[in-house]
Specification:
Helix content is about 45%, strand content about 15%. By secondary structure, it is an alpha/beta fold. The chain binds uridine-diphosphate-N-acetylglucosamine and manganese (II) ion.
Length: about 450
């Protein structure tokens, strides 16, 4: 193959040189001819005067000079063209090598991005722009925008991206039935209806094996696609996992290791949502019993979660800018807004992530928490901890958990008894340069669904 290729190149460049020579020869002959004609040509005038003769010669010399300079220009431009051709050939060769490398990076499962949209045109534009900016390959990561709400300007905004993405539209725009008491939560019913329809399209109509779901008010990090590519095989091979999320609920800049922690990933019992991946198998399980409202809290209930965990990053790969939304910015100012979006590209697909498998992760994690040094909240807040040492604050009651979380700026709520980012009851965070665990006592019996 290489030899063949060289032969081809060598052959081509030698024919090129022969052509060059031929052209040069033709040029020289033409030039000699012109010189000969100019010098032997006698105009048929009757006895011209001497001054007229010298005038004629001068004219002819001018002509000759003109001709010579034209020819010299012609040959240098010819030479330039030939050199250009050669350069082009070299570059083409280089590019095709680069394409081969890129195809290797492109190898992997097709992971479609489902973007849930409604009626926020500026927001959807911002979300799409970032998704397109960082997308390494259109075929591996097709973007499907599903629009609810029938809002025309939003539809037109999405359509303006042409074939960079696909638009699907939720067809049922009828008023939705909502129990009287829940009138003000109607938005959650509409969202749940949209999710069910859109996910059914992804798996039944488009027949994908997995999906990454985002909403129209999320920014994504530069390594968003890389993160999901690398964690997909882990999600597939560990039945105790049921999702990968790009979101860290406690991902404020002051609570994560922004400087050195970008590549750290965790398991969590709390379903984070907000940029997350699931497999077709999970949809086959959840789809038929999908709820009419509050889909995310329903997913978090023990009947659905069935003790399964999600992967989540130390530094968030999504950030929400949706201050005005259905939940009316409940946590927006206090928490959501402050989540730090990862800025460095971590080549996750080149890292060994097998530590995330339960049988490897759990013993290491338990030992780490076990061996960490007990401290009080006051000591942590004092900022006088020894650098590099791992600490833990122990909680036994819901109230102590909440009070401690609040004092440190951590989320203090529970869903089905599970605190945000919790794994085996433990919250891992970073505080003033130390890794700290907010951990239950040794006799922990599992989550208590009555904690809320
Ligand atoms: C919150 C959650 C969101 C979850 C939703 C449902 C956060 C920050 N957000 O929504 O992840 O999906 O609760 O429990 O925790 N939408 C429709 N149809 C509508 C209205 C909205 O499809 O009629 C879409 C929006 O385009 C958006 C999504 O639903 O993609 C969420 O809507 P949003 O208004 O952002 O509500 P949140 O309060 O953020
Ligand atoms: Mn939102």
């Amino acid at each position: 193959m290489i030899v063949n290729f060289c032969l081809k190149i060598c052959y081509e460049s030698s024919t090129m040189r022969r052509k060059q020579l031929l052209l040069l020869k033709v040029g020289i002959v033409a030039w000699l001819l012109v010189v000969y004609i100019l010098f032997t040509y006698q105009p048929s005038t009757t006895s011209p005067s001497l001054s007229q003769k010298s005038h004629n010669i001068n004219q002819q010399l001018d002509k000759l000079e003109d001709e010579l300079s034209k020819q010299s220009k012609f040959y240098s431009s010819l030479l330039e063209k030939l050199r250009g051709l050669q350069r082009q050939q070299h570059e083409d060769q280089h590019i095709s090598n680069e394409e081969d490398d890129f195809r290797l990076i492109k190898d992997g499962p097709v992971l479609p991005i489902l973007l849930i949209a409604c009626n926020r045109e500026a927001a959807v534009r911002r979300s799409i722009d970032l998704l397109l900016k960082y997308r390494p390959d259109q075929e591996r990561f097709p973007i499907i925008v599903s629009q609810d709400c029938g809002h025309k300007p939003t539809r037109e905004t999405i359509e303006s991206y042409g074939d960079q993405l696909s638009l699907i539209q939720q067809p049922d725009l009828s008023d939705i039935e909502v129990p009287l008491k829940e009138r003000k939560f109607k938005g959650y019913f509409l969202i749940a209806r949209h999710y069910k329809w859109a996910l059914t399209q992804i798996f039944q109509k488009f027949n994908y094996e997995a999906v990454i779901i985002v909403e129209d008010d999320l920014d994504v990090a530069p390594d968003f696609y890389e993160y999901f590519s690398a964690t997909y095989p882990i999600l597939r091979s560990d039945p105790t996992l049921w999702c990968v999320s790009a979101w860290n609920d406690n991902g404020k800049a002051g609570l994560v290791d922004v400087r050195n922690g970008s590549s750290i990933l965790y398991r969590t019992d709390f379903f984070p949502g907000l940029g997350w991946m699931m497999t077709r198998e999970l949809w086959d399980e959840l789809g038929p019993k999908w709820p009419r409202s509050y889909w995310d809290d329903w997913v978090r209930a023990p009947e659905q979660r069935a003790n399964r965990a999600c992967i989540r990053p130390e530094v968030s790969r999504t950030r929400t800018f949706g201050k005005k939304g259905v939940s009316n910015g409940l946590f927006y100012e206090k928490h959501l807004k402050q989540i730090h979006l990862n800025e460095v590209f971590v080549p996750f697909t080149k890292l060994n992530l097998s530590y995330l498998h339960q049988e490897q992760y759990d013993p290491t994690f338990e030992k780490e928490v076990q061996n960490s040094q007990v401290v009080s909240l006051t000591e942590v807040k004092s900022g006088r901890l020894t650098q590099g040492v791992k600490y833990k604050i122990v909680y036994h009651t819901k109230d102590v958990f909440k009070r401690t979380a609040k004092a440190l700026g951590l989320m203090d709520d529970f869903k089905a008894g599970v605190p945000r980012t919790g794994y085996k009851g433990v919250i891992s965070f970073f505080y003033g340069n130390n890794r700290i665990f907010l951990a239950p006592g040794n006799n922990w019996q599992g989550y208590n669904p009555s904690w809320s």
